[in-house]
From TrEMBL, chain A:
<keyword id="KW-1133">Transmembrane helix</keyword>
<keyword id="KW-0472">Membrane</keyword>
<feature type="transmembrane region" description="Helical">
    <location>
        <begin position="157"/>
        <end position="182"/>
    </location>
</feature>
<keyword id="KW-0812">Transmembrane</keyword>
<comment type="similarity">
    <text>Belongs to the binding-protein-dependent transport system permease family.</text>
</comment>
<feature type="transmembrane region" description="Helical">
    <location>
        <begin position="14"/>
        <end position="33"/>
    </location>
</feature>
<feature type="transmembrane region" description="Helical">
    <location>
        <begin position="270"/>
        <end position="289"/>
    </location>
</feature>
<dbReference type="InterPro" id="IPR035906">
    <property type="entry name" value="MetI-like_sf"/>
</dbReference>
<feature type="transmembrane region" description="Helical">
    <location>
        <begin position="76"/>
        <end position="97"/>
    </location>
</feature>
From TrEMBL, chain B:
<protein>
    <submittedName>
        <fullName>Sugar ABC transporter ATP-binding protein</fullName>
    </submittedName>
</protein>
<feature type="domain" description="ABC transporter">
    <location>
        <begin position="3"/>
        <end position="233"/>
    </location>
</feature>
<dbReference type="Pfam" id="PF00005">
    <property type="entry name" value="ABC_tran"/>
</dbReference>
<dbReference type="Pfam" id="PF17912">
    <property type="entry name" value="OB_MalK"/>
</dbReference>
<dbReference type="InterPro" id="IPR003593">
    <property type="entry name" value="AAA+_ATPase"/>
</dbReference>
<dbReference type="InterPro" id="IPR040582">
    <property type="entry name" value="OB_MalK-like"/>
</dbReference>
<dbReference type="GO" id="GO:0055052">
    <property type="term" value="C:ATP-binding cassette (ABC) transporter complex, substrate-binding subunit-containing"/>
</dbReference>
<dbReference type="InterPro" id="IPR027417">
    <property type="entry name" value="P-loop_NTPase"/>
</dbReference>
<dbReference type="InterPro" id="IPR008995">
    <property type="entry name" value="Mo/tungstate-bd_C_term_dom"/>
</dbReference>
Length: 296, 364
């Protein structure tokens, strides 16, 4: 199948690709370009679609807006809270689920359910779980003598509540990917390590973790990107509010608010591009670090 | 260390992979475990390693019962069929791994690993990853890793099966050399009989999970316990003739011919001699009988092949091809009728039903 491309073949391929390209172009590519351009509109009449002036003032606005920085800070805390916990927890569960246990299929399904359920529906349940007086979580913590925590109304606790929800939500997907990775590890290495005198913890540390590194790397990139884009969990958990006293306001919520709340398209676009740059740089750093760590 | 198996049995669901194995391997011996595919060699090895727990029977290392002891604590080294080198670790780190697990200090571990690498002659490859090594080099690394913790027993599961013919030859000498240098009890699984014959002190032959014979290679070749052992060893394989034992218990008449062979070895004592027997003669135990009056098996030559300093004859007897390796001094052409004489005490006689060797080997 190493034919050289010809004009005829290329046209034929384009014909097949056209429907998809059209949809992606209209709903993905065009908005990306448009919002990039929009981030430079400093004086814009959106009723008539007339741009009176272009410039960098949207960017200078967000960089001076304490609310933007708060959103950025909250997002960072969210990412730092969610990603490591989620990875460690899902790796642990995946290792357990990979063992020869009874009802393995059942457990795997149970852990995958959060991934296929809708965030909004799930958040309603979690609003109840987090309820200060009647919530399951406080009831449970009560057994350990912890006095009721105002998960959803205390600005100190809103972010932890959001992190708990996000970790739980992301678990299923990560577990499935980890399970696939675990099954790719040749069982012989574990036998060899047993013979070499490795205890089960040593086998986990010296065989599982390094041989799973490319999977872990993939999951960490995906979860960091996804966590930076967190929005629907915030929206649903706090009933459309960015948490008590903006304590759970994330960058995407900020963008949403500027766009639909204040109709300030230029600022919203600029914030979106700022977020994009942050994610882009972080991913580049990860790829760079990953290339040096993940290879064998 | 001495290894003893007492009635060791391994059952997988309804398959009996190893059936009541009773063998004692002495300290410092190199034993080859030989047998056709699926006969339970790997399973036996895995039980010795502790990776499988026998469903019945006892395994002793020295006088310690090890049935319940985990592989980590058995003081064994093992080389797997595909080596199972840790792909993310360098050669040096691979060899150091067992020492690291034992919390040997890093400096000491590295020194021991380098020493071991020198023994197996891979000390110039220490920084490479397993993926960058040839099969033979990987095998040496695997042997070094198995030996570095000074195990009491070394187990090798078909370590040479991935190598080309020349490298196999070289590596088996190498294994023998290393084994004799460190004087370690070694059990070596193979299904190549020539490999087993050439390097081992003793061969343990199995079939369908059952023990067949355990003795030095030459003895197994010369005095097989049964028809299976006789036909498993030797290339070209032993010739088998359906025959019947005459009333005097000394003469054997080959079915369908007028040829009678008089046995030069006595029958086993206390044996109820079945009259339906199989006569087994190895190709090299034939000679061309020129004396009209002497016994022999008559047949028509269908092929003459010169192999080295001998002639290999294919002779047709009763529509079956008999192979004979004879001296080329006597010119034989295709189509000649020859009489194949049998060297004294070289005939084997097996009962048809049990396959058991009927001749007394102790007196021979
Ligand atoms: N884990 C297992 N579960 C079920 N049956 C098994 C298992 N391992 C081996 N067996 C069966 O036990 C028998 C012996 O297998 P084993 O691997 O010991 O053979 P082997 O002599 O090593 O063969 P080979 O020369 O092909 O490696 C075979 O019939 C095999 O199918
Ligand atoms: Mg095997």
């Amino acid at each position: 199948m190493n034919d050289t491309p010809t004009i005829g073949k290329t046209l034929k391929a384009l014909l097949y690709l056209a429907p998809a390209l059209l949809i992606i172009g209209t709903f993905n590519i065009y908005p990306i370009i448009k919002s990039f351009l929009m981030s430079f509109y400093t004086d814009y009449d959106y009723f008539k679609d007339i741009v009176n002036e272009r410039g960098l003032s949207n960017y200078s606005y967000i960089f001076q807006d304490p609310e933007f920085w708060l959103s950025m800070k909250n997002t960072m805390i969210f990412v730092i809270g969610v990603v490591p916990i989620s990875i460690i927890l899902s790796l642990g569960i995946a290792v357990l689920l990979n063992q020869k246990i009874k009802f393995r299929g059942f457990f795997r399904t149970v852990y995958f359910i959060p991934f296929v359920t809708s965030v909004v529906a799930v958040s309603i349940v979690w609003r109840w779980i987090f309820h200060t007086q009647y919530g399951l979580l406080n009831h449970f913590l009560g057994f350990f003598g912890v006095s009721p925590i105002k998960w959803l109304s205390d600005p100190q606790m809103a972010m932890p509540a959001l992190i708990i929800l996000a970790v739980w939500k992301g678990l299923g997907y990560n577990i499935i990917i980890f399970l696939a990775g675990l099954q790719n590890i040749n069982q012989q290495y574990y036998l060899a390590a047993k013979i070499d005198g490795a205890s089960s913890w040593q086998r986990f540390k010296n065989i599982t973790v390094p041989l799973l590194s490319s999977t872990t790397f993939f999951i960490s990139i995906i979860s960091i990107i996804n966590s930076f884009k967190v929005f629907d969990e915030v929206f649903a958990l706090f009933g459309g509010q960015p948490g008590p006293a903006n304590s759970a306001q994330t960058v995407v919520y900020y963008i949403f608010n500027k766009f639909y709340g204040e109709w300030d398209f230029g600022v919203a676009s600029a914030a979106a591009y700022a977020l994009f740059i942050v994610i882009f740089i972080l991913t580049l750093v990860q790829l760079y670090v990953g290339k040096r760590k993940v290879n064998y | 260390m001495e290894v003893q198996m007492k009635d060791v049995t391994m059952q997988f669901n309804n398959i009996t992979a190893v059936d009541r194995m009773n063998v004692t391997i002495e300290d410092g011996e190199l034993v080859s475990m030989l047998g056709p595919s699926g006969c339970g060699k790997s399973t036996t090895l895995f039980m010795l390693a502790g990776l499988y727990k026998p469903t019945a029977g006892e395994i002793f290392f020295g006088d310690r019962l090890v049935n319940k002891i985990e592989p980590e604590h058995r003081e064994i080294g093992m080389v797997f069929q595909n080596y199972a080198l840790y792909p993310h670790l360098s050669v040096l780190k691979n060899i150091m791994f067992p020492l690291k697990m034992r919390k040997v200090s890093k400096g000491e571990a590295e020194e021991l690993a380098r020493e071991m690498a020198k023994l197996v002659q891979i000390d110039h490859l220490l920084d490479r990853k397993p993926g960058q090594l040839s099969g033979g080099q990987q095998q040496r690394v695997a042997i070094a890793r198995a030996l570095v913790k000074k195990p009491k027993i070394l187990l090798l599961d078909e370590p040479l099966s991935n190598l080309d013919a020349r490298l196999r030859l070289e590596m088996r000498e190498e294994i023998r050399r290393i084994q004799q240098e460190v004087k370690i009890t070694t059990i070596f699984v193979t299904h190549d009989q020539e490999e087993a014959m050439s390097i081992s002190d003793k061969i343990l032959l199995m079939k369908d999970g059952k023990f067949q014979q355990f003795c030095p290679p030459q003895e197994m070749y010369d005095h097989p316990e049964n028809e299976f052992v006789a036909s498993f060893l030797g290339s070209p394989p032993i010739n088998l003739f359906p025959a019947s034992l005459m009333d005097n218990l000394k003469d054997v008449s080959i079915s369908g011919t007028n040829d009678v062979i008089t046995l030069s070895s006595p029958l086993k004592e206390g044996m109820d001699p079945a009259r339906q027997v199989t006569l087994g003669i190895r190709p090299e135990d034939f000679y061309i009988e020129t004396d009209e009056k002497k016994q022999g098996i008559l047949g028509k030559t269908i092929m003459v092949e010169r192999i080295g300093r001998d002639n290999l004859l294919n002779v047709e007897v009763q529509n079956k091809t008999v192979r004979a390796i004879v001296s080329p001094d006597l010119r034989i052409e295709r189509g000649d009728v020859v009489k194949l004489g049998i060297l004294p005490e070289r005939a084997h006689l097996f009962a048809v039903h049990t396959g058991e060797n009927l001749l007394d080997s102790k007196l021979r």
